[in-house]
Amino acid sequence: MSVNRIDEILRLDRLIEKLDPSGQPRIEITFAPYETLPERLGVLSSSFNPITNAHLSMALNARSEFSLGGVMFLLTKVNVDKELFGATLTDRILMLHLVARMFDRIWVGISSHGRFIDKVKAFRARYPHLHLFFIVGYDTLVRIFDPKYYEDPDREIEELFNEAEFIAFNRGLKTVEDVIQFMEHPSRSKFADKVHAVEIPEDLAYISSTYARERIASGDLDSYSIPDEIKGFLERTELYTDSPAYELRKELVGYLKSVYSTPPEGVKGDVDVAVKLMAVNSHIGKRLKEIIRSGAMPLQPRRRKVEGESIVGDFDLTCPPIDEEDALKETRRCLYCPSAPCKEGCPLRVSVNRILSLIAEGEIMEAYLTLRSDNPLFGITSFLCQDELYCGGSCFLGRLMGQGCSIRSREIFKFLWRWGGENSDKIPPPFRMNMYPKPIKVAVVGSGPAGMAAAWRLAERGFTVTVFEKENHPGGIPYWETPRFRFPAEQVIDNLVRQLGRMGVEFKLGIRIGREGEITLNELLDEGYSWIFLATGLTVAKKLGIPGEEESGVISSKELFRMERDLGREEMIRRFRGKRVIVTEGGNTAMDTARTLLRYGARPTVVYWRERPRSLKKEYEAAKAEGVQFMFLTKPVQIKRDQGRIVMKAVKMKEGEEPLPGSDFEIQADAVINAIGAIPDFRDEDLIVDERGFVRVEPGNLTTS
Questions:
Q1: ∠ CA 571-575-580 to the nearest 5 degrees?
Q2: CATH of the domain spanning 430-539+681-705
Q3: For 438-492, what is each residue's pLDDT tens digit?
């Protein structure tokens, strides 16, 4: 556990917020070395601002001398005598965690109420079996008997001592004898057998949190007053000093609380790094402070919510392009890092930071032309790119403060795509060089993203390009196998084809190239093509490799999307409405398939052998929100038909890759859709392929042998 991890800080912060000092007394455990609290539990309750060696000594001595099963450091959300100052409650808990981790049988908790009688009630409500021993100093023992802390002093003090015992240590000038004499007073003597006086080592008796803060403020981090376990935290945060670093930390955490409405899981960003950058006032640090102090929130794309019966037949975009105002707001959150990690993280090396900077300055045309120059197919990638793995995953802002803070570059590029469509008459045509005195013909086989990207780059350089496509429309998988609620294929692909046409690229549709097609690769060469670029894509669906996979009603996701193309949506809805369909695998294709089935009126269940899907998180969350069901740690092993229905035999899996013995069970369904990916299909006998079905090429120039 890191005391600087964003997810841990925000988790604790939300937990503290939920504790209501005006409601029923409540205690939450924040650190537990074991699942169950021991029956004999010592409780050292304090403000811990910070925890001191005196606190630690009292806890360990009490545990040893009274044979306690463990001790809990219990922070109070509201102190009955003091206003909150110094360290935040969250940071006090984090410091307690650092100490508790180094000693056996130490728990950490937080109480909604400050009075001991309320803490007892909270423990009794949740842990009625406990034998409680409150560990206190002399000064706290005196306050326990002060009537100003009670509505009905006699009754409540009686109740308190009926429910708990007290281990009282001497503090400051007060000795153990003072503790005993205090309890011998006639008004308190009846409780004397519930108070056990214990002596703390003399060198610790005078140490208090106030004294510790003074030593830290004077620069004495080697002070004997504080545990070694928290010294590193104090040094990094500069807590209790005149440095502005700790106030910057609080500013940052406050901003992150507003960004993450719920505590994020697995956000490993380290607040310490961001605070250090802000403290030294570097370029990045200044930008961070500007973003935080302006309260600029990460873009939340406008996702149309569709669910229930209304989803049937609804193939409109669920996440349409944002408008210019939102694009401007998002670009102004960019750090404009000099090193441009977003560009380095992009496989195409798109100048993300420059494009964002241009938009922020209002130079939309220049931003559009820069993006088109870097990535002519940005209309496709702005809808379909797995940006979480590339620019989004590399965004320095996201790495500092969690991916929820990453710049939504893909959404900005979608805006530019829409802007380009609305302003097409003003945009200069794509550039084409005339480098060669005689035309050099190049054939591109396949019109998916790879084929069209190659055609664009070749045409830019002056080659005469012809694209051959076996289907009657270009676009490949994005056009034929991507649901329209994710990707407006007609607008994007048709616009690309028009632009390529302006560059002189010719498309020949309905022509299969290869041994079983209308023309072979060698015949293309004979027709005068100097080069052939193979971009045939992944055309053959993989198999599960289990018995019964050839049964009727078991098809691939490729076949499902082909059925829609051949039969039309209305017929697909008629065939699938009300049917239970199993979708195998857990990638993005499985999410697309399951969400498409929902729109056919089916009841899809994704069956996957791991404990979580391998798809992008946002695709999984979208599928789950729309109503797709999931069965994780479930592996299909056989398919059969029984009385007209499909029966899939499956086994439950351990969190590794081993099946659980005796966990076989059956799932009934009307259809099974395999969404486990695809492989190439090179039918030309002159090509040498490897064991995966991919063409072998020369490492240096990627030409075939």
A1: 145
A2: 3.50.50.60
A3: 889 999 999 999 999 999 999 999 999 999 999 999 999 999 999 999 999 999 9
